[in-house]
Amino acid sequence: MPDLLLELFSEEIPARMQAKAADDLRRMVTDKLVAEGLVYEGAKAFATPRRLALTVHGIPARQPDLKTERRGPKIGAADAAVQGFLKATGLTSLDEAKIQRDPKGDFYIALIEKPGRDAIDVLAEILPVIIRTFPWPKSMRWGARSGKPGSLSWVRPLHAITATFGLETEEPDVVKFSVDGIEAGQTTYGHRFMAPSAISVRRFEDYEAKLKAAKVILDPQARKDIIFADAKEVTFAQGFELVEDQVLLDEVSGLVEWPVVMMGSFEAEYLAIPDEVIRATIRNNQKCFVVKDPKTGKLTNKFVLTANIEAPDGGKTIVAGNERVIRPRLSDAKFFYETDLKTKLEDRLPKFEQIVFHEKLGTQAARIKRIERLAAEIAPLVGADVAKATRAAHLAKADLLTEVVGEFPEVQGLMGKYYALAQGEDASVAAACEEHYKPQGPADRVPTDPVSVAVALADKLDTLVGFWAIDEKPTGSKDPYALRRAALGVIRIVLENQTKISLRELAWGHLERSYDKQYLEVAEKLDDLMVFFEDRLKVQLRDQKARYDLVDAVLNAGSLVQGHPIVAVVRRVEALGKFLDTDDGKNLLAGTKRASNILSIEEKKDKRLFDGAPDASLYALSEEKALARAIDEVTAEARAAVAGEDFAAAMSAMAKLRPPVDAFFEKVRVNDEDAKVRENRLKLLNEIRSATRALADFSKIQD
């Protein structure tokens, strides 16, 4: 079957847009093909700074013929309805229609046959529509063509369209269409400087090979591989090691069509700046990689750049140009750093009085005071020194007002640590200045130092409590204050440090002590905040392959809304999972579900609940008495184990219910003819349900 080659050749496409644009092109073309009945075998898209390209393999040469039936009016319907039916279906008279019998009457049916078209004609129709409606995040219109104003919106001026379609063994045809005066053809262009001449291409293999000969590597991954391998080689050759940076690699590969890796250097005096500032300066301004000494792990005064040309002088001019730009940037960074060191962190804090955190939540200064109080409260709960936690919370935000962070926001927190150490602060206090922001994503590390844990929890909980108090919660996909990330951060910190704290107690106490009376009136919304935490916890546990039904079962029995610690919830889920893997667990689950099902049916029938203690004098059978005794014993034993957070022991205790529950259902008829006995036995079933709910809501567990 034939293949399609499509290329859209333009001025430079921003690197950040290329990957999505290539994927959008593949998706839009293949979706249209399938919608037109042209089911293809495979498709792959590519992007370089000056082109989007797509190859689609195994497209049928022709659409299938379609036969559809269209239902018309009833026999005897008004003439207007009949004429409308004939016009819509293309029939000349009702004699060409079939009659279909139906309980509602007899209807006319038109059999419409639509012959398939050649695939190349379908492509000529759909491709210009896709180009005109392409979803660039930003696009532009440019000057007139042939005296007519341009009408196409594209990311940068579009210069040429290549579109060929045909079998591998034959000369492909050009898909004939035009967009804004640009005629589709089979001409593309190589590297802007090294091979700018026009190139005639036929199909994808020919196209890719000719581009490579014209100094263009089409595949973005191939360009990444070349840059990474050459960068590692050039650094290793000089006894250094490349500092790997996947995000920068992705960006740099989108800036070049023919990557050429070189090494430059800068004055060693700039190594007095923290490594992260050097890296941010060189990375942000020149898109270059930094280099470290493998023996010390510290940066060297070298950097790796990626050029887009094989220069006649071997790249000396290019390297010198990059060095000339980097030098003043590092000089500025050095000046900012040295200037920042002259002012102590606490001396910057008064400026926060004039900086609003949120119009309803006050200034940054007020927020810092709230975090201090909460960190001091959390500190003894996580084994942190209260004075150190308070001091860390006091200084943690101060680096936001420094020159370096103003220039490079990505090093906030980190610079706070450096400045705190420079002014002689305790190491734990300094570490907390950096780590209180963590974790900032699923791949980020979690703080483990107790002082950092206290301040990180305080920072995130203050944010969550505050925004819940003013009713600024995430809605749908919108989360402008990153509250989902804050909640997941709290959960990860608590779980990975095995911190036994009640989020509900902390949140309520913080709300009462730190917010105005107007916000206390909506304090009940903090229960909703705990439900939000539960939803985030479910996401976290599912990512760790926990069974969602077990999570729901445990949370239904002991939720965060009720003040249960997250660590206890997770341990209970783990213990429940292990218990249900045993025969006792499986059989007890079956018995408990049977009891719940009977109760649900009878409660619905009688329109009442069968709660309250059973009457022991009404036990007529030994199995009833044995089950009642077992429930009393097991409930006391399980609750004591739960109180001691020994959930494995609680499950072992619960396993003792299995024999009497099995015996009860084997020998006892619940719906006895005596109404009092029936009611008493239903109450006994409710006791089974209540006993197991001390651990989990077994009704939520799937068999």
Describe this structure as you would to a colleague.
The chain is built from 26 helices and 18 strands. Strands 1, 2, 3, 7, 8, 9 and 10 form a seven-stranded mixed β-sheet that branches. It is α+β, with helices and mostly antiparallel strands and 703 residues long. Strand 7 and strand 8 (173-174) form a beta hairpin. Helices cover 50% and strands 14% of the residues. The mean pLDDT is 92. The radius of gyration is 36 Å and the shape is flat.
Mean pLDDT: 92
State the distance separating the first and last CA atoms.
49 Å
**Largest sheet data:** 7 strands, mixed
Helix content: 40-55%
Low-confidence stretches: none
Number of helices: 26
Looking at the structure, what is the overall shape?
Answer: flat
Structural class: alpha+beta
Number of strands: 18
Notable traits:
single chain, 703 residues, alpha+beta, 7-stranded mixed beta sheet, 4-stranded antiparallel beta sheet, 26 helices, 18 strands, flat
Give the secondary structure arrangement, pairings included.
Blueprint: E1 3-10, H1 15-35, E2 42-48, E3 51-57, E4 66-74, H2 79-89, E5 98-102, E6 105-114, H3 119-132, E7 158-166, E8 173-174, E9 178-179, E10 182-185, E11 187-189, E12 198-200, H4 204-213, H5 220-237, E13 241-242, H6 246-253, E14 260-265, H7 275-286, E15 289-292, E16 299-307, H8 316-341, H9 345-348, E17 356-358, E18 362-363, H10 364-378, H11 386-395, H12 403-407, H13 414-422, H14 427-435, H15 450-469, H16 483-496, H17 503-514, H18 517-520, H19 525-543, H20 548-557, H21 566-580, H22 583-606, H23 622-643, H24 647-655, H25 658-667, H26 675-692
Parallel strand pairs: 7-10
Antiparallel strand pairs: 1-3, 1-7, 2-3, 4-6, 5-6, 7-8, 9-10, 11-12, 13-15, 14-16, 15-16, 17-18
Helix pairs in contact: 1-3, 5-6, 7-8, 10-11, 10-15, 11-14, 11-15, 13-14, 14-15, 15-16, 15-17, 15-19, 16-19, 19-20, 20-21, 21-24, 22-25, 22-26, 23-24, 23-25, 23-26
